Amino acid sequence: MKVLVLGSGAREHALVKAVAADPEVDAVIAAPGNPGIDATALCVPVDILDGAAVAALAREHEVDLVVVGPEAPLVAGVADVCRAAGFAVFGPSAEAARLEGSKSFAKEVMAAADVPTALAHVCTTMDEVESALDALGAPHVVKDDGLAAGKGVVVTDSREEALEHARACLAKPDGRLVVEEFLDGPEVSVFCISDGSSVVALSPAQDFKRVGDDDAGLNTGGMGAYSPLDWAPEGLADDVVRRVAQPTIDEMRRRGTPFVGVLYVGLALTTRGLRVIEFNARFGDPDGQASLARLETPFAQLLHAAATGRLAQFGRLRWSDDRAVVVVVAAHGYPTSPRTGDPITGLDAAAEVPGVLVLHAGTRLDEAGRLVSAGGRVLDVVAVAPTLAKARRAAYDAVAVIELEGSHHRSDIALRAERGDIAVG
């Protein structure tokens, strides 16, 4: 099998590594890729928002499967163009990707499918926002309706901060937002693979969105993650499929817009049971890396089965008993004003730590051929070990030998889970 993976971040680096490890795969092409991906796949500089260009690349390399990594090409309809060109594609159509592209649409689908989620008000004026904030009370949750790369949500006790974010959302063309009730309880990420009819879930992970230790500071795209969740209710993944993912996939098929790809279910385990916080139409970053790190099922074959409507015949997924921890190394100034262009060293030493894989999130080669930072989140350090404590230690041992001036990371990824301090309900 030849596989084309679209994207250039740590999510795509993880996808490329997992696809390349499948014994059925003999070539991986990445567009546009990054310096880390380049060690495993052929990287080609193609505009991944241009469906015709992507389809031409797939045709040139005679690929058997196209995997769309980021959300922007999905919402832009790149999967539709590639399917129309005759390729098997893992990634939803533009219409189905609205589950991520529009928070209000996702709420509408959840209501129709009877999926448990937070109470919400869709707002297009500041008067509606103020009424919604009054009705739901603090903490206030205000979400940009459209794509915001994981950073369009503000959760705050400050009414003024909530209003400020709402004004910014509504100032955009066709601006609209969603004001939701705050959900208590720990948050969980469950990635559900679908072929448009059947659904299988990956092992749940937990993500750390705030920039600082103890969940202090601003929301980010994710500062770390771990999997599995020993504290979560037994059978959680199956419960999410039964109560959330399968009803949603059934509703999308009923509407004539079948969802083929990965449905990310972000949920809170509240005192009233599980509640969906949001849907995404792609693997998370870094929580997706934590889930994938333990998957023993051949990954490309799984994605091809989903892309070709054969998931029901694929069988149950196989998992390692190990634990996985991901720690993100972020650039100076992230998330508000990340600095780029700083040299990165120590990756060879980090990779020598047993069980560690370093994924490139925001890197490039400068004119002199040096590896430098090129984004807010620069590296994802993934560690796999028999226990959570050993996985944490390996991840942080690797982070310690990486040099990037002004960089920062959270020191408490999976710490509460290691100590047994997380309670549900």
What key phrases describe this protein's structure?
425 residues, alpha+beta, five-stranded parallel β-sheet, five-stranded antiparallel β-sheet, 14 helices, 30% helix
Which residues form runs of ≥5 with pLDDT under 50? none
Query: Total strand count, please?
Result: 24
Oligomer: single chain
Give the termini distance in whole angstroms: 46 Å
> What Rg is obtained from the alpha carbons, in whole angstroms?
20 Å
Average of per-residue pLDDT values: 95
Shape: globular
- Beta-strand portion reads 25-35%
Number of helices: 14
- The helix/strand class is alpha+beta
Fraction in helix: 25-40%
Strand arrangement, largest sheet?
3-2-1-4-5
What can be said about the biggest beta sheet? 5 strands, parallel
Protein described:
The protein is an alpha+beta fold. It contains 14 helices and 24 strands. It has helices at 10-20, 51-60, 71-75, 78-84, 98-101, 103-113, 126-136, 159-170, 236-254, 287-292, 299-307, 347-351, 388-401, 415-419; strands at 2-7, 27-32, 42-43, 65-68, 89-90, 120-123, 140-144, 153-156, 177-180, 187-195, 199-201, 206-207, 210-212, 216-219, 224-227, 260-270, 273-280, 323-330, 344-345, 356-360, 363-365, 371-373, 377-385, 403-404. Strands 3-2-1-4-5 form a five-stranded parallel sheet, sandwiched between helices. Strands 12-15-18-23-20 form a five-stranded antiparallel sheet. A four-stranded antiparallel sheet has the order 6-9-7-8, with helices on both faces. Helix 6 packs across helix 9. The longest helix has 19 residues, at 236-254. The chain starts with a strand and ends in a 6-residue tail after the last helix. The mean pLDDT is 95.
